[in-house]
């Protein structure tokens, strides 16, 4: 495992990648991407057993990750590139014509690291269940991880999947919710309140962990490690991870406004002053 | 007119069930998922023989499509089973994103398609499913004509890598395809060579086309009859070769005229060899409750309707 200072430097660089990528094409979703940097860095650098240089669709004996809220593709792409799935320079093709880095992640262009298309919300948990069931059939003890947006939980398919996962004891899957309380139209509590999420998932039969510090790397790592201790115990596992949308850029925090809009030149300059070039920019 | 006979009437869904059971024995990667219609889909045999490879999803078709997509990651070949209505329209976006766009090797197996579902009525009688599925890039769409062909198709699609929509039905109908006939995806089956008209039929309408061919022969009209079990990819070579000879065509299907087999044939011919065409299909209407036979008559999908369409199209030559 890389030391924590290195991981924090990587996190800073990932934040730079995110704002530069969306700025370059004046589109994309920086807010949720910035809020999930620590989760992705923890997952890909510390938690998952995976082989970036030899990507296979089946991922036999590797841990798998499914991004259900595909619009936060910038953070996904940046971390995939910086863990060796594809060249970092390719980040500059994000959302451009003929790119493998589509607006929302897809397998269609064969980008290593992506195993399912996502973007239309609510589908990733079902896919992850299927992959987890295949692992059980294959006597493959590696794990399946997912990430979901909190707004995404308004989709009915999530609850179909949640019911199934508990009923059929899909206990080799660790799901996380990016619980930032904001969605594209405003606060989740104003758009369609989710109620008591912990109680809901527990009532569905899940083991639920609440991480109040989803933007602290040590905390994210420790909650994912803790979640692993519940693997194989007959219940699917959920981490409700409190994050701040827009984390790391002062003017992007405390609002939903940067959910789906990109900074202009001046705003980019202001953002980059707050996040140093910790590794090399693409 | 070549004589077609059958020893018994059987339902195409049972052909699917038999094919799936055979696959279960021959291919350990085949898994099956069902959304609370195991008996209706005739998946019981597979469920009994391979409980560890059978997933009862409950009444949650969206989740079923996602789980099927996920099972392919790990090398499984999932066969999903539910009614055609719930296999397509209800889960269109799940199929589009998680299966078709993601290029997943899922076999979407759909029973009770069309009017012949019968008494349940229009809520369940989907007549738009071929159109919905053929519009998805690279989706293979198959609608076999009888028990034996459905069984053979079920076995054949497991060997094809990529998403497939397999459509079949509820009622018992003549089982005339030879049990040993090889099923080739995208390859039309020539049922009768003729010179005056080409009848291109799919699914339950294939037997109706044979009946129509006999009635036409009695009137001195020589019909070439082609069974198009694969609507996509369409066997355009077989179609072109036939219409070059007959110079007119009737398509017949248990589906809306919009978006069905007839549409695909017309699209091909209009671009390559414009030919008078008549459509035996449901004309922009929902179905209703009734027996399968009553419904096929009322909605113009009977052999007499094919005969009328043939006479009309010949007059347009």
Task: Characterise the protein shown here.
With 282 residues, chain A is an alpha/beta fold. Chain A has one domain (4-272): Rossmann fold, CATH 3.40.50.970. Chain A is built from 10 helices and 7 strands. Chain A has helices spanning 4-25, 30-35, 37-47, 73-82, 124-137, 156-167, 188-191, 197-204, 217-228, 265-272, and strands at residues 64-67, 144-149, 173-179, 182-183, 186-187, 207-211, 237-242. A 5-stranded parallel beta sheet of chain A has the order 1-2-3-7-6, sandwiched between helices. Chain A has a two-stranded antiparallel sheet with strand order 4-5. In chain A, strand 6 (207-211), helix 9 (217-228) and strand 7 (237-242) form a beta-alpha-beta unit. In chain A, helix 1 (4-25) packs antiparallel against helix 10 (265-272), helix 3 packs parallel to helix 4 (73-82) and helix 5 packs parallel to helix 6 (156-167). The longest helix of chain A is centred in the first third of the chain and has 22 residues, at 4-25. By secondary structure, chain B is an alpha/beta fold. Chain B folds into 2 domains: 9-174, Rossmann fold; 189-315, Rossmann fold, CATH 3.40.50.920. Helix content of chain B is 38%, strand content 20%. Chain B is built from 12 helices and 14 strands. A 7-stranded mixed beta sheet of chain B has the order 3-2-4-5-7-6-12, sandwiched between helices. A 5-stranded mixed beta sheet of chain B has the order 9-11-10-13-14, with helices on both faces. Chain B starts with 8 loop residues before the first strand and ends with a helix. The mean pLDDT of chain B is 98. The interface between A and B is large, with 40 and 32 residues.
What general form of chain A does the structure show?
A: globular
Tally of DSSP helical segments of chain B? 12
Name the helix and strand elements of chain B from N-terminus to C-terminus, one letter apiece.
Answer: EHEHEHEHHEHEHEEEEHEEHEHEHH
**Oligomeric state, counting identical vs distinct chains:** heterodimer
């Amino acid at each position: 495992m890389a030391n924590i200072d290195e991981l924090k430097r990587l996190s800073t660089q990932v934040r730079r990648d995110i704002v530069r990528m969306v700025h370059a094409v004046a589109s994309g979703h920086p807010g949720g991407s910035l809020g999930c940097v620590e989760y992705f860095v923890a997952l890909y650098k510390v938690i998952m057993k995976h082989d970036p240089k030899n990507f296979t669709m089946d991922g036999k004996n590797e841990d798998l990750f499914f991004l259900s809220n595909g619009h936060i593709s910038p953070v996904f792409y940046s971390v995939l590139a910086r863990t060796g799935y594809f060249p970092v320079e390719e980040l500059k093709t994000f959302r451009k014509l003929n790119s493998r880095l589509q607006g929302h992640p897809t397998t269609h262009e064969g980008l290593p690291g992506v195993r399912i298309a996502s973007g239309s919300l609510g589908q990733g948990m079902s896919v992850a269940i299927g992959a987890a069931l295949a692992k059980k059939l294959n006597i493959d003890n590696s794990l399946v991880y997912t990430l979901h947006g909190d707004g995404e939980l308004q989709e009915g398919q999530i609850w179909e999947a949640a019911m199934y996962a508990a009923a059929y004891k899909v206990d080799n899957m660790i799901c996380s919710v990016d619980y930032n309380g904001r969605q594209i139209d405003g606060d989740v509590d104003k758009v369609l309140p989710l109620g008591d999420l912990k109680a809901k998932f527990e009532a569905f039969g899940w083991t639920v962990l609440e991480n109040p510090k989803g933007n602290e790397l040590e905390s994210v790592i420790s909650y994912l490690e803790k979640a692993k201790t519940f693997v194989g115990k007959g219940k699917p596992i959920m981490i409700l991870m409190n994050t701040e949308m827009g984390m790391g850029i002062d003017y992007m925090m405390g609002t939903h406004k940067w959910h789906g809009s990109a900074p202009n030149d001046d705003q980019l300059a202001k953002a980059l002053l707050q996040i140093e070039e910790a590794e090399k920019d693409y | 007119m070549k004589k077609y006979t059958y020893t018994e009437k059987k339902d195409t869904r049972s052909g699917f069930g038999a094919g799936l059971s055979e696959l279960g024995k021959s291919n350990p990667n085949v898994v099956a998922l069902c959304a609370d219609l195991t008996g209706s889909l005739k998946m019981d045999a597979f469920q009994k023989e391979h409980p560890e490879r059978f997933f009862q999803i409950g009444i949650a078709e969206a989740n079923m499509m996602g789980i099927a997509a996920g099972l392919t990651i790990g090398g499984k070949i999932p066969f999903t089973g539910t009614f055609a209505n719930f296999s397509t329209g209800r889960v269109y976006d799940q199929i589009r994103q998680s299966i078709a766009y993601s290029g997943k090797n899922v076999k979407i197996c759909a029973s009770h398609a069309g009017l012949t579902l019968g008494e349940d009525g229009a809520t369940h009688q989907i007549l738009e499913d071929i159109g919905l599925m053929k519009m998805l890039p690279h989706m293979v769409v198959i609608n076999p004509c009888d028990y034996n062909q459905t069984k053979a198709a079920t076995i054949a699609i497991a060997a094809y890598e990529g998403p497939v929509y397999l459509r079949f039905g509820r009622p018992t109908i003549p089982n005339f395809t030879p049990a040993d006939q090889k099923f080739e995806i995208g390859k039309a089956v020539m049922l009768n060579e003729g010179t005056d008209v080409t009848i291109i039929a799919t699914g339950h309408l294939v037997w109706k086309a044979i009946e129509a061919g006999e009635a036409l022969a009695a009137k001195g009209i020589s019909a070439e009859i082609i069974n198009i079990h694969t609507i996509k990819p369409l066997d355009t070579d077989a179609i072109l070769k036939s219409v070059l000879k007959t110079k007119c065509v009737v398509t017949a299907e248990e589906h809306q005229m919009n978006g069905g087999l007839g549409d695909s044939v017309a699209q091909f011919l209009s671009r390559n060899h414009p030919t008078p065409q008549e459509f035996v299909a449901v004309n922009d209407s929902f179905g209703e409750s009734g027996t399968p036979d009553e419904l096929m008559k009322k909605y113009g999908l009977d052999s007499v309707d094919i005969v009328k369409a043939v006479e009309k199209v010949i007059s347009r030559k």
